[in-house]
Amino acid sequence: MIVAIGGNTTALAAKSATATIPIVFEIGGDPIELGLVASLSRPGGNITGVTFLVGTLTAKQFEILHETVPKAALVGFLLNPANADAEIKTKDALAGAAAVGQKLVVVPARTDSELEAAFVSLVQRRAGALVISAEPFFSSRRDKLIELTARQKLPAIYTLREFVTAGGLMSYGTSITEALRLAGLYAGRILKGEKPADLPVQQSAKVELAINLRTAKSLGITVPPQIVARADEVIE
Question: If DSSP codes are grouped into helix, strand and coil, which group holds residue 75?
Fold first, then answer.
């Protein structure tokens, strides 16, 4: 069996490698749009898994960031253009920014040098805040991203709470721990004899809002009380 975690690209690579070995994926995209499964209820073939449908949460990320930094007229969206669903993520971001009356600038980054260049571009364009898309490359550069946002005094919202516990400002997204737990349960069931084709794709529904008030203070931001009250985790 193959357990493909770490994003859409990993799952697609596993699917292209074999049509017989059972595969369990854990992704943030839509497995139907990505071509991983025929349907959520009847995935078919040798693959199933867990999705947390990041795109459905993007609008809420823009809403929370707008409430926190209402004067930010231009918001950046950090995106890895090499991601399989980069186009979908861009569309979701444009809709999220428009819903709260903000202009959007998409800054691409797929390497360390491009990350540095992306933040230079954001500063030059005078972006007032930043949404960082869910992306394995960005997760692997967590500390670097936190350092860059702190250096440029740029309020940012992430998808994973792990960024906030490491010093990021705020996050809103599905619990990665819960998603991996569900994937692990499916892996166990398959090892005991069940077939991926008979296991519906699960949607991880546990959503977390985390805020780091220490980071907010260093950025000169006062997080609105209503946002703090809604948070599942507040670091003071």
Answer: strand
